[in-house]
Design goal:
It is a single chain. By secondary structure, the protein is mainly α. The protein has helices spanning 6-31, 41-50, 53-67, 75-95, 101-126, 135-160, 167-176.
Length: 177
């Protein structure tokens, strides 16, 4: 696990904000009424898989505050949903995980489906006017998000390379080399 880096964290937030901005402003202008992928969701998954649990949860909660300006969802819907997403990804990471794009792509699809199921479930439980089910739209959204995930994964891997190397791991690598 790489050490904490404020610079890399800031760059990741900028990337997440750009993904949200692309999703809410550029996508509708380019593709019209075609369902928008959740471009920010692979970022939440990446954090959950590559960072410690509480760091990923804190960053996703802070991102939810930023995300409020891009969505009509309330914070009382976003935070519990992010808790479920980060917890499910952390559970999957502890049970079966291998680094790389071949794991990340299907995990993004499952995470997007979990986002939709959790959001609809919480909305129907706690809100007067709940979110509609719209199964075809939600599956299309998951497919498009899955197709976009390699681009976001590549950008996030490049940002992770900017993270400072842990000195203990660097010493072990030098000794073993």
């Amino acid at each position: 696990m790489s050490p904490f880096s404020l610079r890399v964290m800031s760059l990741q937030f900028v990337l997440a904000i750009l993904c949200c901005g692309f999703q809410t402003t550029v996508w509708p202008n380019l593709f019209g009424s075609i369902q928008m992928p959740q471009f920010w969701l692979p970022w939440i998954l990446f954090l959950s898989l590559h960072r410690p649990y509480f760091e990923a949860l804190f960053m996703s909660y802070f991102f939810a505050l930023i995300m409020l300006s891009f969505t009509s969802l309330s914070l009382q819907m976003i935070w519990p949903t992010f808790l479920v997403l980060v917890s499910a990804a952390a559970f999957a990471k502890n049970k079966f995980f291998w680094p790389g794009l071949r794991y990340f792509i299907p995990a993004t699809g499952l995470c997007c489906l979990l986002w939709n199921v959790t959001l609809v479930g919480l909305s129907s439980t706690f809100e007067k006017s709940s979110a509609p089910l719209l199964p075809i739209t939600r599956v299309l959204e998951a497919l498009l998000t899955t197709l976009a995930s390699p681009l976001i994964y590549g950008a996030l891997i490049r940002l992770e390379k900017l993270r400072p190397v842990d000195s203990a791991k660097a010493t072990v690598r030098e000794v073993s080399a």
